[in-house]
Amino acid sequence: MKFRFKMLVMGLLLVLPLGANQQRNLSQNCPPCGDFTEALKDYQRIKVGIPRKEVEKYFERGGGSQFPSAAHYNYPKCYYLHVDVKFEVSGKEGKPFSPDDTVLEVSRLYVDYPTMD
Amino acid sequence: MTVTPLLRAADGTETPLSLVVVQPQEVKTVDLAAAIRNSAPQLIGTYGSAALRYHSPSQASLYAVSMVMGVGHSIAFHIDATGEDQTQDVGSREGIWWLPNATANDYLVLMNRGQNSLQLRLSLFDASGKVSIQNLILPPRGMNRLSIRQLVAGAGLAGSYGGMKVSAENHAGSLDTLHVLFEKTAGFSAVMKMFDYDPKTQLKERDYAKTSVWTLRAPMLALSNPDPALAFPPGTVLRPEIFIRNTTAKPVDAALRFNWRTASTIGKALGPALRLRPHETWRIDVAALQDGKTLPPDANWASVIITTNSKPDELMAVAASYDATLRYGAQTPFSDQLSHQWKGGMWEYDPYHNSIITAGNGGTKPTRAAFTIFYNQGTQRYDLEQTLQPDEQMWMDVGKLIGEHLPDKNGKTLPADLTSGSYEFRDLANTGVGTLFEGKVIYDKTYGHVTYGCAACCGYKLNSVLVWFDPLGVPFQGLGYDGVNATDSCSLQNFDVSDSFYGGWSTANTSVATVDHYGTHTGVSVGSTTSSTYGDLQMFLKSWNCPIQRESPGGGANVKPTISSLLPSTGTVGKTLTIVITGSGFSTTLANNTVQAGSGIAVTVVSVSTDGTTINASFAIAPNAPVGSSGVTVTVKASDGSTVPSNSVNFTLVAVAIPTDWTILSEAPLNSGALFFQYVWSSSTGAKADLSTCSVGETVFYPNYPTTPYVWPLPMVQSTQNPTFPPTGRGSDAVSEDTNYPPGSYQQPYSATNPFTATQRWWWSCPYYNNGSPNNFVPDLSIVRKIFKDTDGFWKYQITKSGYTNTVKLPNQ
Q1: Which residues of B touch A72 (CB under 8 A)?
Q2: Contact call for B718 and A79, based on CB within 8 A
Q3: Is B749 on the interface with A (CB under 8 A)?
Q4: Chain A hits for B784, Cβ within 8 Å
Q5: How close is the nearest chain A Cα to the Cα of B595, in Å?
Q6: Cα diameter, chain A
Q7: Do the beta carbons of residue B214 and residue B204 sit within 8 Å?
Q8: Is A52 within 8 Å of chain B by CB?
């Protein structure tokens, strides 16, 4: 399946349809605009071929469903920033989501509501 | 029901009349005088009987009564229609003769309802028991009409009352009799009710109240001071009297009790205790007991209760209340019958008639009685209910119910112009053996005559008492529930009578199955046995006769192995799979288990667990095996050599590799308030690697879909895409994790929310199956979230899915 919600961070951040009650709360959880450069810097560390353990140094697995072959991540400093990653599973028996699974494909960094299920 | 009325002449010749169609609960009237004029004028001036022919699984489906009325006179007789009992050979009809004055006429009518000649012996007794006997023969379907006055005089018997017995040594169940008195000048008529006597009858068959004492009741004895409702002329004084007869050649003891009533009060009184010598008849002057010591002088009615040490029908009684002229009066019949259901005939209410209907509790414990009036051809009903203490009666003046617009239990009133209908009583507390007795009088305001009518008891139909399941399947180490149904003889509907069989249950082989007080069976070991119970039910034996019979229904009880799951439950043709069959009751001896599967599947039982709960079987599926579902069963050879099959569980064959058997591997409530799940699934080929091109994923739909985003209700602060559609995994993935989060934050002040539901759909798709369209793994799941104030006073967030719940306290409290 194709990755969804691939949006450029800077362009869309200003037009998200946030409720009045939530805007204050969400902005408290997200860095000022200038700090997105840090998120971009961390995102750029996710390269094809690196192990899962490297990905998870900078991003956290999000809510909803996660598969050994496909996971989606939240940026810890702002849960509205996401990246989806496909892995080549290491094939170790009985150890799904192995730290040694290697990155096969990386989506662009995008903005969306966190997945809650 | 289509009924054919017949006129039957004294010699048995029959003349059929026009068919009558009777709707459920409907009352229809046939004018026999008009029918004779129109269809059988040759019968004018003769006498005979009437018969009704109909087809029904039960004789009790039709209630019928014949009313013989002297037009222009206060003379009326009610004659209950009865059916022949072809099973009774020896027996008699027992009666009391009464000549209330020197001029009253009487008829003793003897009728043969059968197709065989009846040889009868007529015994007449005076009050002391002196007897005169003569023999009679009745031809098939024939009848005879005798005068007791003439017979008594001819026999030289003295007195104004005594006993009579009409006995038969063969075909006694074909005999019916009627004894009536009348005098046109005085405007007097009376029915001297006669009783069936069967020497084989035992007390336990007729001890409805379980008092070990045979008891007779007459529910509506009109006392000296008549009820104004009867509309007798002012100053009318009745002379209530009771005739009691010992029908046997041995002494019998009897005791009388009265439950009396005035317009405003009720009370109880003890009457005399009697010792009746052989064949003796007594007359009890009840009027004399209304001296203020036994019964109040102003009492209007009494129900009379006679208890005796005799067996059923060895003692009999007839009551009569007439004034000195015999012009005004009423009767009430004695009966021992108590029933859980009574079907009544016609009641009347118009400017010239009214009806009083009563039901009482003849048992020893309180009960709940339901009374229903049916009207408008049986299509409408009027319902009353009342709790009755022992001996207590509910008393319905139909004219009052109609005229005063009294509402029933549902607030419904009877139409003001209603003039007739039918009725029934039901004992709501005792459905096996009932404790209600009943009575009805219809009085004619023009002539001052009161006629009683009897309702018919509704016993259960013979041979209709059956266990719910035969055989009953009982899971190994599990429970199997059984009970008893019986068919009501009146409505022909089945009723659950299980409570009458509690405590009687047993199984033939307790090493196979046991059963408790209530019929709950436990499977002890795989095998076959039988299970049965016993209990007492009121059965419909013949018209107006619903004795207690011990019934012992039963059937087979098979303790079966049980399959709870197959894994995988889907296989691909041409593949060989190891199927894990989980359940219980499998034999721990491998060779004693046989697994049956669908066509084209060769099964080998590979292993069985030591506790008999798991079988590993190899399913070799032929390449040409038919695609689709078929059943899998495990048949176990029991220790007694019998083979017992399990339940059947579906196994599906497909042509390609597809994901199947998606299931929860683990669940955990997280401290954050989230619910965490791990899910796994199988491949129809047995190899997950075969699913590498398939996708597995979820979609979550929030309320108001497709409006997006969904803003969670405050104080939950969160928004989500609607639907949420996370990245998908591969069919070959070993597992999927799923975290269902709480909201990002909460807004204060806290308040309760209505729960909101997110619908989670798990699906798979394979590019080579149904053009890659998604297929649901399981029915949609509900994820329910809410904020509430708990009993400890704290606001809490709660999430529930698949029966799992996580509850966490909200911050800053």
Answers
A1: 726-727
A2: no
A3: no
A4: none
A5: 31
A6: 49
A7: no
A8: no
Q: Is B453 near chain A, with CB under 8 Å?
A: no
**Contact check, Cβ <8 Å, A29/B744:** yes
**CB neighbour burial string for B291-315, b if at least 16 within 10 angstroms, e if fewer:** eeebbbeebbbbbbbbbbebbbbbb
Please, where are the H alpha helices in B303-455?
A: 398-403
- What ipTM score was computed for the predicted complex, to two decimals? 0.81
* Cβ neighbours of residue B624 closer than 8 Å, sequence gap 6 or more: B573, B600
**CB contact (8 A) between residue A65 and residue B698:** yes
Per-residue b or e along B421-441, where b marks 16 or more CB atoms closer than 10 Å to that residue's CB:
bbbbbbbebbbbbbbbbbbbb
The answer to whether residues B538 and B340 touch, using CB atoms and an 8 Å cutoff, is: yes
Measured between CA atoms, how close is B650 to chain A, in angstroms? 29
Q: Could you tell me the pLDDT band of residue A4, with boundaries at 50, 70 and 90? A: very low
| Chain segment A66-116, per-residue pLDDT in tens | 999 999 999 998 989 999 999 999 876 568 999 999 999 999 999 999 999
B612: its two tokens: 């008999």
B319 and B332 in contact (C-beta within 8 Å)? yes
Please report how many Cα atoms fall inside a 13 Å half-sphere around the Cα of residue B116, on the Cβ side. Answer: 15
Element (H, E) at B726: none
CA B517 to CA B521: how far, in whole Å?
10
Is residue B736 within 8 Å of residue B750, measured between CB atoms? no
Q: Which uninterrupted H or E stretch holds B394?
A: strand B393-397
User: Is the Cβ of B666 closer than 8 Å to some Cβ of chain A?
Assistant: no
pLDDT at A29: 57
pLDDT of residue A92: 65
Contacts of B744 in chain A (CB under 8 A): 25-26, 29, 79, 114
The residue of chain B nearest to residue A70, with distances taken between CA atoms, is B729
State whether residue B536 is helix, strand or coil: strand
Q: Confidence class of residue B25 from pLDDT cuts 50, 70 and 90?
A: confident
Model confidence band, residue B346 (pLDDT cutoffs 50, 70, 90): confident
What are B135-194's pLDDT values in tens digits?
999 999 999 999 999 999 999 999 999 999 999 999 999 999 999 999 988 889 999 999
Express each pLDDT in B54-92 by its tens digit. Answer: 998 877 788 888 888 877 677 788 888 888 988 889 999
Give the pairing type, strands B593-596 and B614-621: unpaired
User: Mean pLDDT, to the nearest integer, of B638-643?
Assistant: 87
> B472, exposed or middle or buried, with CB in 10 Å at 0-12, 13-18, 19+?
buried
Q: Are B219 and B332 in contact (CB under 8 A)?
A: yes
First to last CA, chain B: 75
Q: How far apart are CA B114 and CA B104, in angstroms?
A: 32
CB B269 within 8 A of CB B257: yes
Reply yes or no on whether the pLDDT at A20 is more than 50: no
Residue at token pair 């064949």 = B279
Of B725, B730, B747, the CB nearest to A67: B730
Chain B segment 76-135 residues within 8 A of A by beta carbon are none
Question: What integer pLDDT is reported at residue A34 of this predicted model?
Answer: 59
pLDDT for position A3: 35
The answer to whether A77 contacts chain B (CB < 8 Å) is no
Residue B333 is encoded by which pair of tokens?
Answer: 């019949």
* Higher-scoring residue by pLDDT: B585, B445: B585
Among the residue ranges B72-76, B126-130, B555-559, the one predicted with the least confidence is B72-76
Contacts (Cβ under 8 Å, ≥6 apart) of B679: B662, B663, B664, B665, B735, B736, B737, B738, B762
What residue type is B783 in one-letter code? Answer: I
**Which residue from B210, B225, B301 is spatially nearest to B259, judged by alpha carbons?**
B301
Residue with tokens 């529910």: B219
